[in-house]
């Protein structure tokens, strides 16, 4: 065969063309079977690679899920700790405010009592436990101060440490 400006020129006999065609078919068949075996090797390698990647991604996903669960538990524990600390702080502040309110109320009521105008009374409160310290003019004033203190809202107990002032 010869080529002339992109065209095939027939210079071979039909018999040689048949032999050439048979040779091409034989080579193609051999190449196809060889190509099939070789094609399976890269395909199998690709399948094996994909399987390994899937297995690794499953392992990574399991690790991420375990990490997420651990993070969720840690966040939940931290939230509970913060909540508990806030409740304790609120209780402390609330008690301080309640105690301040109790002290203010008791002092105002003691100051309004005419029987106690000459008394010098200090009032302290811790969680509703009231302590009265100071001096009064007589025993009746000690009892009256105790009654006024007990009647105030929020007072749980009164530790009356008042004493009668000696007359000099």
TrEMBL record:
Pfam families per UniProt: BON
Keyword tRNA-binding assigned: no
Signal peptide start and end residues: 1-33
Keywords tagged on the record: Signal
Domain BON: 98-166
InterPro entries: BON_dom, Transpt-assoc_nodulatn_dom_bac
The protein, known as: BON domain-containing protein
Species: Roseateles koreensis
